[in-house]
Amino acid sequence: TLGTQTDYRDGEAQTDPYSPEYVVPGGSIPELLMLATLAWGRGLPAGLAEVEMIERAREKRAWEANLPAMDSASNITKRRKMMDHMERKEWAFREQEIEKLQEVRLEVLKKLLQRQEETQNKLNAKRLDYHWQNHQKAKEEKIKKINRDCALMLRKLIAKRKNVMGKLERRDIIKEYTDFASQIYAPLSRNGYFPDNHSERYVVKSFYLDTFAGLCELEASLADYITQVKIKAPKPMYNATETGYIKRSARLEVTLAQVHQ
């Protein structure tokens, strides 16, 4: 009256087919016993190869039944010829089986070689891509260096063109002070100026910062709202009762006010 459901298929839970025990009567040779070597997963269920094997076994048993008896010289000669013919037939069949097996192995080998070639081609493509990217980076760096050198040489040529004859020019103080890129504002180290040697000149020195009396005087000059901070408590958003309870009507009023805004 109850039904069950599993997480597995019937095929996954199925075991090998059951093979019951049997008794062979005396004097009989059942044909089914010729297939005793076959088992589930090793020839069963029977395919085309197994059917051909069964047919060949039947033909061989029929051939053995038709062999002449060895009671005379002619029968012995005939029996030997039939056995030679059957032996050549079996060897030819065996050669065909070997050729089929070799063809199957050759196909497997072709597939393996093709797969290996595809893998090698992928590796070669990755390697070529890696080298191409490295060459591209080197090319870009070389182009940047050429552009920097070109800009430097152009600046040098422009500077030389300004004074082609090599005449000495007087110093224009007004022009130097109006140009913030001149030697007045940005002196060059190659001209003998090192700003780190006189760094103490940029330190701020003040009476109000270096002495205690100056700090007291500076503090006294400040307004009261700077030294004495006053903090105003924020107004509550809701109108609470004396016990601190917030009524529902107060919440609704605040919500309506926000919606109205």
From TrEMBL:
Species this chain originates from: Indicator maculatus
Primary localisation category: cytoplasm
Localisation per UniProt entry: Cytoplasm, Cytoskeleton, Cilium axoneme
Keywords for this protein: Cell projection, Cytoplasm, Cytoskeleton
A Pfam family assignment: CFAP91
CC annotations in GO: axoneme
InterPro entries per UniProt: CFAP91, CFAP91_dom
Residue intervals of the CFAP91 domain: 4-156
PANTHER family: CILIA- AND FLAGELLA-ASSOCIATED PROTEIN 91
Family: Belongs to the CFAP91 family.
Name this polypeptide is given: Cilia- and flagella-associated protein 91
